[in-house]
Amino acid sequence: MHELLDLFRSLTKNLDAFTIEHGNATYAILMAIVFVETGFVVMPFLPGDSLLFAAGAVASRGYLSAPLLAVGLIAAAVLGDTVNYQIGKAIGPRVMKSENSRWLSKKHLVKTHKFFEKYGPKTIVLARFVPIVRTFAPFVAGAGAMNYRTFIVYNLVGAVAWVTLMLGSGYALGQVPFVKERFELIVVGIVVLSVLPMAVEWWRARNAKPEASSPSL
Fold first, then answer.
1. What's the Cα-to-Cα distance from 176 to each of 19, 55, 135, rounded to whole Å?
2. Positive or negative, the Cα torsion across 167, 124, 115, 86?
3. What is the pLDDT of residues 147-185, one digit of tens each?
4. For the residues 28-50, what does the mean pLDDT come to?
């Protein structure tokens, strides 16, 4: 698993060279990564935001077609969430009731369920921009947090917003000298910013625990 994670990190950092070497197959590979990250709840570690930004930057340099990338990645994101929803519908209720799961993090499932309690159906859109929650949200939705028709609407909106913003940002900034010279640092910054909401939520929950757990008289 560690070797696989290193491979995907390397792909994000060296996407230019990877695209030159693999040509049009790069489209299918990028779509597969987005599909797997959003479609299989056991794969939350795959790159999402940083990969889309890198793909947009590569497209700005003429190695890939931005419109083709956008359509393909939106389709992959929508299909991934849809598959994840169906998996959640099939096994979600049983997993959510179980205290321990061999493949899924109960902590992440509970955290995602709290997202639904706070934001409702908008969670499917907002989760696109939050690593880990992005992978668990459609699973929890399928487990009973949302009916299918509502889910599909928010799934489409979220996929379009996520891909357009991240891919478009990479395309717009990919040729800027400051970004080109510090590309790896920019990618790391995107990862940090994307996990920041989770860190803030964790910090708030941590500080609220003593007060919430104090005995009543």
1. 20, 15, 32
2. negative
3. 899 999 999 999 999 999 999 988 988 777 776 666 666
4. 82
Nearest to 91 by CA among 139, 43, 148: 139
In whole angstroms, what separates CA 36 from the centre of its chain? 10
Per-residue model confidence as pLDDT tens digits over 62-85: 999 999 999 999 999 999 999 999
CA angle 52, 55, 59 (to 5 degrees): 140
Give the helix ranges, DSSP H, for 61-182. 66-97, 106-119, 123-126, 133-140, 148-173, 177-181
State pTM to two decimals: 0.77
Rg (CA), the chain: 18
How far apart are the C-alpha atoms of 200 and 133, rounded to whole Å?
14
What number of other Cβ atoms are within 10 A of residue 25's Cβ?
Answer: 11
Q: How far apart are the first and last CA of the chain?
A: 50
Report the residue count for the chain: 217
φ, ψ of residue 33 to 5 degrees: the values are -65, -45
CA distance 188 to 58: 17
Domain boundaries, the chain: 2-210
What b-and-e string marks burial along 68-90, b requiring 16 or more CB atoms within 10 Å of the CB?
A: ebbebbbebbbbbbbbbbbbbbe
